[in-house]
Amino acid sequence: MLESVFTYAAPGLKFGRGASDEIGWDVQQLCRGEARRVLLVTDPGVAATGQPDRVADGIRSRGLEVVVFARSRVEPTDASLEEAIAFARDAGPFDAVVAVGGGSSIDTAKAVDLLLTNEGGLMDYVNAPVGGGRTPERPLLPLVAVPTTTGTGAESTTICVLDVLALKVKTGISHARLRPTLAVVDPDLTMTQPAMVTASAGMDILCHALESWTARWFADFDAKQPEQRVPYCGANPIADMWAEKSLSLLAGSFRRAVHDGSDAEAREQMALAATFAGLGFGNAGVHVPHACAYPIAGRVRDYRPAGYPDDEPIVPHGMAVVMTAPAAFAFLHDAAPERHRRAAELLGGTGEPLPTVLRRLMRDVGLPSGLAELGFGAGDVDDLVEGALKQQRLLATAPVDVTEDDLATVFRGSLEHW
Amino acid sequence: MLESVFTYAAPGLKFGRGASDEIGWDVQQLCRGEARRVLLVTDPGVAATGQPDRVADGIRSRGLEVVVFARSRVEPTDASLEEAIAFARDAGPFDAVVAVGGGSSIDTAKAVDLLLTNEGGLMDYVNAPVGGGRTPERPLLPLVAVPTTTGTGAESTTICVLDVLALKVKTGISHARLRPTLAVVDPDLTMTQPAMVTASAGMDILCHALESWTARWFADFDAKQPEQRVPYCGANPIADMWAEKSLSLLAGSFRRAVHDGSDAEAREQMALAATFAGLGFGNAGVHVPHACAYPIAGRVRDYRPAGYPDDEPIVPHGMAVVMTAPAAFAFLHDAAPERHRRAAELLGGTGEPLPTVLRRLMRDVGLPSGLAELGFGAGDVDDLVEGALKQQRLLATAPVDVTEDDLATVFRGSLEHW
């Protein structure tokens, strides 16, 4: 018997220039006026912009004490999360958590909030089989997520992504309780993103929208019992709407925001696109490009893009995701030709296939030309396929069954895009 | 200085055929597994369909005790709400409230939940100047709203509408805490709506979408302090999206659902349209047609439509709202010609002005031909205008300032639509 029900949930949202000035008031509302101490989580790069201090001062002006943890790691690991948790346990108790930064700061805040409120250790809650897959039994502290990059949608989602260092695997913690209580999206905070961060994070928006828009339809899954329902329930009428609108916004603003970071209107449209895509994929799910991104990011050798911390090699998340997108959408086309045609059109294409539209956009915003430029070769394909196959939770959201051979075709088709 | 920020909030949503079978599980999730006793609020007409009993049995099958209050009044009054509150206080304590019915049952449940959890009396919380305008200080019990009509959007909104009998005025209680925690929209529950209920409630959907789509743009209001923000913040990019999609859904299903109530696909599309419009207007607001509906419903003489309780005269809410819509949108056209053109197009029009598209739809679904058929004449216009002017909260959401003369023109243009 097939499924007939879909679910939808979202954080409260405050959107617009200046929205981040009011967070002290918002925290008090969420805490029924009883908040005294707030933990603010950010990362060193974002802290250097001065924005987290400004947010902290605004919260203090409402009579609250703020403790700042500014050592979130870009691409969190179990070790970096443990450090944040230990800091918070030591500096607590807190009444609320505020995250200011990209997906890494927001995800770090989710893990900290989880372990401040629920018993056990971090690995207990990490998705099985890597971790214990434990369900958080108690509600978390109110979490206000304030994104400073326009990409991850972490402010809307129920997942915290991390690398487990000893196992060299990227995995996550996923539960409805991890969804932030309130997303405060202030386009003014995104103006300082370097061009490559805007380009890479923007590709994350694009893939959130395209993957949720092309995900397996919710009613094509087997019927579930209520306790089996997950936040990511497949494409559905609501997620579709967010994805479509996000693609339209990207078509009008992505190139502009990358080429002129001071274009306030383009920044605002990108912030809206990121929020919309997050609200969509946060309920539908993502699939092939995201599954392929895990081993690409995890197996990086010495690639160091401009605009990111240069202390170690990194393939930024959005860049890792979009690298296989043209080949993945070529592979997935026949599952829903009309959707692929419509997506290309929403992105401003004029009749070309979706992969062509994607490659042109990647090139226009200055992304690397393919996996080869990131340091991968044909000899890495088997290894990358093995890594992608581990992301069964994501692959299950694809509109067709995805085999080892299919993934190899996708990776081989992603070495050189132009 | 003008506003730059908009806010958005929504209940969790479970949508689809069979969704109402799982409410016992949902209640336990919302109560962290600690729920024991649930109050189910419904009205006699809906109770007669057997659906509330079925929902109650489903909840009981999860080990919960359910007490049913089946005496909600269609169009609640202060007296009917007081009766429900007294019942609930007497039969409590409860861990959660479930409302099964139309907007009246859901609004009754909101008032009951408010007074089960917050001190004081009903009139303390009613909007000033009619009531005390008190702010609920404590969170309410989890409220699961299960609409059985496709119209009101009460499952998404922060307002409870009531008639204050002694003052002969329709007013409300409005606060973010009144928004249901979870909306369970099961199209199977809407199949029993009589044709006139489908037509009238459908017009409520239509006006929610059209009024939020044409409301004053959020950034055209004066800038607010955080404590001044209200759930209804004017048209904005998110509310726009819900409104547009709702209009498209109505274009494809409204006539079908009225003319063949057993058309399951049309019922599902109408349920989706109602949900979408509720999620939109629940954040943007409504204006002229809703303001005019209050005195139309309040001053009814002897109109008794098919499909509604026949113990007293009634102008159903959606019918009252749409009666002035063609004239109101003719009056408002020049404030945003492009939006009016687009709305007419989304509703399936082929170039005609929006009022023409509206009148045709009203006629096609069997609505009365105007205020005259409801028993009003030109001599009632002054009285109706006086009543509409009292709805300043709604009129402030209109895209232009609305004068006494403007309202008189709207009412006079609504006596006979064909």
TrEMBL record, chains A, B:
Keywords carried by this UniProt record: Oxidoreductase, Transit peptide
Catalytic activity: 4-hydroxybutanoate + 2-oxoglutarate = (R)-2-hydroxyglutarate + succinate semialdehyde; (S)-3-hydroxybutanoate + 2-oxoglutarate = (R)-2-hydroxyglutarate + acetoacetate
Ranges of residues in domain Alcohol dehydrogenase iron-type/glycerol dehydrogenase GldA: 14-187
Protein name per its UniProtKB record: hydroxyacid-oxoacid transhydrogenase
Protein family per UniProt: Belongs to the iron-containing alcohol dehydrogenase family. Hydroxyacid-oxoacid transhydrogenase subfamily.
Transit peptide found in the keyword field: yes
Lineage: Bacteria, Bacillati, Actinomycetota, Actinomycetes, Propionibacteriales
Residue intervals of the Fe-containing alcohol dehydrogenase-like C-terminal domain: 234-412
EC identifiers of the protein: 1.1.99.24
InterPro entries: ADH_Fe/GldA (IPR001670), ADH_Fe_C (IPR056798), Alcohol_dehydrogenase_Fe (IPR039697), HOT (IPR042157)
One family name in Pfam for this protein: ADH_Fe_C
A single MF term (Gene Ontology): hydroxyacid-oxoacid transhydrogenase activity
Annotated SUPFAM superfamilies: Dehydroquinate synthase-like
